[in-house]
């Protein structure tokens, strides 16, 4: 079993940018709070704009009343044009306080516009989406976890998630990945798989040879899951 490198930050050393949101669908007013909502979180070095660029695919599962909220990572990704969800080295686990603070800021930004949503995260964005679930489970109606991981820092919602899953009331979760994804440490992907198996109603999918990406086959599997959980 491997492990992350220990972060040398000792806490956030650079103030995060304000949480930026982009939209598809109904607007930001209070009348749209109850619209079926998909929150999408990008991977390391990417941006919310690249997630919104997938909009031609969204027509396959979004009804007219549904909307997408794409969130931008708060930190610049060194050597990339895009953003990171956490400060520092992407191969190190941030301090527990930073992991919690990022999830809480993202949750608060989304909660200004939606009380409950389906959350989709890719790669590092999957980690943030899972952490939101683990800290604010009432905000997550379903989870789509793609080609990513979760840090093992305990979160306050973990015990209740485990009880709900054991009682057959777990949050629906689609987890898709290539079992030999070269970008995600195997120990981190396995920890996420075991956590989701014990804390959600897990629907696990394996896509050998896909690499660290999305494939047409995976998208075809995700679509009915989203269609079901974004029904108005």
From TrEMBL:
<protein>
    <recommendedName>
        <fullName>Phospholipase/carboxylesterase/thioesterase domain-containing protein</fullName>
    </recommendedName>
</protein>
<dbReference type="Pfam" id="PF02230">
    <property type="entry name" value="Abhydrolase_2"/>
</dbReference>
<dbReference type="InterPro" id="IPR003140">
    <property type="entry name" value="PLipase/COase/thioEstase"/>
</dbReference>
<dbReference type="GO" id="GO:0016787">
    <property type="term" value="F:hydrolase activity"/>
</dbReference>
<feature type="domain" description="Phospholipase/carboxylesterase/thioesterase">
    <location>
        <begin position="33"/>
        <end position="229"/>
    </location>
</feature>
<comment type="similarity">
    <text>Belongs to the AB hydrolase superfamily. AB hydrolase 2 family.</text>
</comment>
<dbReference type="InterPro" id="IPR050565">
    <property type="entry name" value="LYPA1-2/EST-like"/>
</dbReference>
<keyword id="KW-0378">Hydrolase</keyword>
<dbReference type="InterPro" id="IPR029058">
    <property type="entry name" value="AB_hydrolase_fold"/>
</dbReference>
